[in-house]
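INFO  loader      accepted 1 record
INFO  loader      residues=534
INFO  predictor   begin
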Amino acid sequence: MGWFSYQYLNAKREMPLVRESRGDRYGKKISERLVRCIWLDQLFKDDIFTTDGRKIKVLSPGWWNLGEGPDFKKTVISIDGEKVLKGDAEVHVYSSDWKKHGHHRDERYKNVIIHVFMWNDLKPPLLPLLQTSPVSPHSKGGEWGGHKEGKGEVLQLEISQFLKEEIEHIEDTIDIYGYPYKSPKEYGDCSSGDAEKIGSFLDIAGDARVIEKAERFKSSLNGCDWEQLLYEGIMESLGYRRNKLQFMSLAKAIPLQTIKDAIRRHSYKKRIMIIQSLLLGAGGLIPQNPPFPPFAKGGKWEDYSQEVKDYIKTISREWNKYKIPIVKNIMWDFYGTRPANLPFRRIAGISHFLSSNTEKGLIDIFLSEFLKSSLPPFNPPLSPFTKGGVRGIMGVRDFIKKIDTLFTVYDDFWSFRYTFKGRRFANKKRLIGQDRVLTIIVDVLIPIMFLYSKENRDSRLEEIVHNVYTGISRLPSNNIIRFMERRLLRGERHIINSARRGQALIQIFNDYCASNEDGCFGCSLKNESKSLKV
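INFO  predictor   done
INFO  writer      dumping tokens
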């Protein structure tokens, strides 16, 4: 019997994740957010009809999307009591907003099944939007939601004529800026139950997430190369959500052994430049030297400062020594990425970390820190970067601070800028922040060290890893965690008092919410949580 519970995973295997399914345009000026609230809470009559006269029933309005793309995900609608549609919903004030906002050219909207708006400002009759065939929206003539024969239709619903109350009354009675958090429609069927039982269920689901991550790492373990496994895991984590795959490809193209061989017998400063040249070069991130324009970000050589020119020349010279090609088809996603998280800075950060620690061995460094913590179980977890607490809590804080110190690195060039062409900062900035270090601990170190304990049959190490895991306070929130706090916990955020429980919400979302086309309608989570003896 180990320290990480398999109870959640066993129950998941035995039970299926999904059950079998059973106005006026000149009116008051309103915000699109109000229309979204009306759609979410279904503040209209039971009998509603699309603009082309079909009766529809909203089985589920879907989930209020806090990220990019359509306003609601996992919407379920029946047409004339027969055909059922499942997909996304987009909400606007006017019917013309669909095209004004460019959704007809945006592939992210290809799964929209219904376009909901308050008023129709287009010439009637307003027919359903037709989605194009699955071609790129960037290709000639390619549009999503254009009026062409295609793979499916987007229903159109003008809700002003079906409202239960006058729109002024609705606006006065609901707090639109408190949504979606204040809407009871955001609570799932799984949300009933006392906090203690839900907390226990989250604990075993949090263990399940570590176990499944460890299994994924095991499939990537090449022989017994734990060093490369740790390196790939850390690199992937540095890619954040948008560039995870790109960083993983880079770690495989420039393996750790290649870096070790290249930096052997060089000074620390020289090592930094070699690692940066290898990773930036293989990633296709080095601006070309003259006379080969265009340069990165559309820049010209004369536009760069002398400091930048000198840096580019140095890493280009190093890169050219190794004759390693740029990773094939690597496409970096800069859109929506915070400047501090751009690949240049993360590569600079890992270059300092590797330069300082490859000789000692990554597995030995992290194993040593886990073993030195040697923590007893304790509850509840507290914030790792604040003072005070019992001995066990301080042990976790000390452990996290030691790991954080390994990643507290600065660079003479990249600590003072975000990009090659950006302005130089007056003060240096950390390349890998505390929040990212905590994420590396939870997403990479704990699963890999758990795997290491299993592979070496070291129950004492497994216990230590588990105690560290249960002692870490909650990580920074994300869209999935915020969604599940509403769906499963009815906004009771205090229940998520640890990283373990935060990881549980992601595990449950992936197992049930993300994989269920019907949304809450047809989900078996409520039954499974009751069947578990927690």
